[in-house]
Specification:
Elements: E1 6-11, H1 16-26, E2 33-39, H2 45-52, E3 57-59, H3 67-80, E4 85-88, H4 97-102, E5 107-111, H5 123-130, E6 134-141, E7 151-158, H6 165-189, E8 192-195, E9 198-201
Parallel strand pairs: 1-2, 1-4, 2-3, 4-5
Antiparallel strand pairs: 5-6, 6-7, 8-9
Helix pairs in contact: 1-6
Length: 203
Amino acid sequence: MAPSKKIGILLSGRGSNFEAIADSIAAKRLTAEIAIVISNKADAPGLESALRRGLTALFILSKGRTREDHDAEVIATLKHAQVDLVCLAGYMRLLSPEFVRAFPHRILNIHPSLLPAFPGLDAQKQALDYGAKVSGCTVHFVDEHLDHGPIILQKTVPVLETDDEHSLAKRILEQEHIAYTEAIGLVLSGEIEIQGRKVVRKK
């Protein structure tokens, strides 16, 4: 039997998407191993959660360092852990071009909107302010631009007239937890490939 593919998780906060991935692995919905969890915040609840689960979890300081210097240490740590895939789970930093080049088509992110609509921060508020009737989440490959890489999959969520950004965010997050596991499974299966901007199933 082939060994499980290894995932590296980067997070800055509570890491609920990390927990959903870890739960999916524990429940055998996803065949993979979380090799390492890294945060740029020493007090990130996601780090504590990872340690409780018995995972290798590290804080790598970013404050007061250049992006290139910090990213170089994170890259080296991920490579030492021999990760096959890097998953951003609420990682509140833009990755340097060097980071993206170090893991070509092997970095995933999840964003709480139907990209290319509403990239960046406060996507749920952006959707409400714009009057969108449907929102959702997007799992995509990371490239050198913000919330821009090829889309792996999306889940839709209706925007209700009674919604505020918190209620909409909560419902989108429920779909994020499902979508991320599905997308990781697709990527690790080797069943998909990137053609230009499109992610397609191999023939």
